[in-house]
Amino acid sequence: MMTNAPTSVVAATAPLTGGGGGGGEEEEEYSPRLYAKSQEDLLRAQSYNPAPTTVPPPIAALAGNIGERHVLVFIGLPLRGKRTIALRLKRYLRFFHGARCRAFDVASANQSASNQSGRSISSQLREFLTDGGATTTEHATEDEDGSVRRRHTERLREEYGIDTFSDANAKHVDSGRVAVVYSSDASKTFYETWSGTSKERRRAILKDLAAIEAEERDLGGGSRKVKTIFIETTLTREELVEEVLAQRVARDVRNGKVSEEEIEEAKEAWRRRIDEYRKLYVTLQEDGSEDDLSYIKLYNYGERVLTNKMRAYLPQRIVQFLTATHPTAHKIYLCRHGQSEYNVTGRLGGNSAITAKGVAFSEILGRFALEKICGMRRDASGDSASSEWVETHDTVRARLWTSSLLRTIQTAANIEHPVIHDGDWEQMSPRVYRNIDEIFAGDCEGMTPEEIVEKNPQAAYLRSMDKIGYRYPRGESYFDLISRLEPCIQEMESYTEPLLVVSHQAILRLMFAYLTGVAREQAPGMNTFSQNVVYEITLDASCEDLITEDVDAFPGFVIAHDFRDDVAKLAKITDPALRKKFVDELDIDRFAPPKSPSPPIEKPR
Ligand code: F6P
């Protein structure tokens, strides 16, 4: 039986604002959801269940800490990659933990405050952390069953003295707020309080935040703590210092602040400036004088990590993420498996083999992976049948992940695994990761979308209404996928070698959305992933500048290598020698400006 269409969502959905990213302080707020919209019907008071649970138990992706507030303050010398890491952490906390997270740039607050048009970081934080009491008073909006809910709420208040809307235990609250404070120009803001560059400045930050708490108490807002965590980045390896410096100067060149001819001069000036700041900067002290602070000290990013007073759910997730992430430039290549038998008939899920077209793509991918990703070349000296891959000046160590399903393993089957660097590294060593298996459609596995509409109209309807939250009967939702993807993303963040991921539509939508700054609610509707196209994503410090909020557009750090026409041609060739010739002669580096993907939200089916 079809359920009534809910017309509103409880304390859960505010208008989406796209990816977020960028400088942060001007962006609209992304509002997290505490439960799947498609479960809403289960949360209404019914005659047989007059006191329903207000929010179902969380899954990891929806497990924000209710009402908690954290302020993460990035500190360290200039040019330590703080901005990149801070903005990436913000994206991670939003995407994987549903945290209401906003970034605050000390450099731009400083600028606007000095020309009297802007507000200080403290006042911006005050507004974000308290936000007109929204953390405790976001109510259900009127809906068809509003009267039932109201009656139920009133009864709870009258009979049991429980106020579900203002009681501290009420679940109609947001899933925690996280302010990420960083400086996009740490040399300009070195002497600012919020740079946290000395013990006194760190104490002043704590005092500012304590004042916000006190003000809230005075206004009767309760005594919820604002937890402050200092995150200090220290670089001791020269090559990392030089890489961050190079990325910074490249950014200045792009922004027109430095010309090509001035690059070396600009670098030298930075080195001198940093040497001066080094004399003035006071690191987080381990002599007992700062032991009461919560902090994370990162040495060479995750190489060595020291934590103090970081025992809680979100702080531990933050430590784990920061142990993995780094601003060193590296590439992620994403592609779907080649055409499968189920793709031909439009069936969902399953574990079918790839078709002739799928095999054609796998042959092309075999060459692309070794030549384009690993930077190797076939030795043309021997006879072509037994040719071997040899190293070149461009050869890099590279990695490969597939799911555990036949269609991705077969798609990667033509990728060879030459051993390089004197036996030190096996290229594209196959790693089979169950976490990147396709969404499991439960009772709907093996059906076509049309069959689902016919046999399980409720499933089709609820999914069209809430694609991210709808869990297939005995199957999974996109929120479930987000939870099982998190450990892979942590690992992916830690790599510096290029990684090729051969996976599936739903998984790749989420990975792509996370990496390119698209809000997770928009990911299930993205039609980005064509089969037979390899998407190359270069992650470095410039990404945060290039992220757009337009889900339709690829940001500038994504390249699409489009082999769709080649696959169609190759699939028609039957002679093995001719097939090989076709692949060998293919222009393998055939990236085209990515075509704009089709509209973001699919029509309900
Ligand atoms: O149709 C191919 C496929 O990978 C299915 O196996 C899977 O159920 C589906 O795509 C996921 O996409 P969507 O979430 O849009 O249904």
Brief digest:
The chain is of the alpha/beta class and 605 residues long. It is 36% helix and 13% strand.
Structural features:
single chain, binds 6-O-phosphono-beta-D-fructofuranose, disordered N terminus, 6-stranded mixed sheet, alpha/beta, 13% strand, 605 residues, disordered C terminus
Could you describe the 3D structure shown?
This protein is of the alpha/beta class. The chain is 36% helix and 13% strand. It has 19 helices and 17 strands. The chain has helices spanning 82-97, 106-114, 121-130, 134-137, 146-160, 199-218, 238-254, 263-280, 313-324, 341-345, 356-373, 406-411, 449-455, 457-465, 478-494, 505-516, 543-546, 564-570, 576-585; strands at residues 69-75, 100-105, 177-182, 226-234, 294-299, 304-308, 330-336, 377-378, 389-390, 399-402, 419-420, 425-426, 429-432, 499-503, 533-539, 558-562, 591-592. The strands form 4 sheets. The protein has a 7-stranded mixed sheet. The chain has a 6-stranded mixed sheet with strand order 2-3-1-4-5-6, sandwiched between helices. A hairpin with a 4-residue loop joins β11 (419-420) and β12 (425-426). α11 (356-373) crosses α18 (564-570), α13 crosses α14 and α15 (478-494) crosses α16 (505-516). The protein is flat. The model is unreliable at 1-28, 132-146, 164-173 and 595-605 (pLDDT under 50). Residues 348-349, 438-439, 441, 504-506, 524 line the site of 6-O-phosphono-beta-D-fructofuranose. 6-O-phosphono-beta-D-fructofuranose is lined by residues 348-349, 438-439, 441, 504-506, 524.
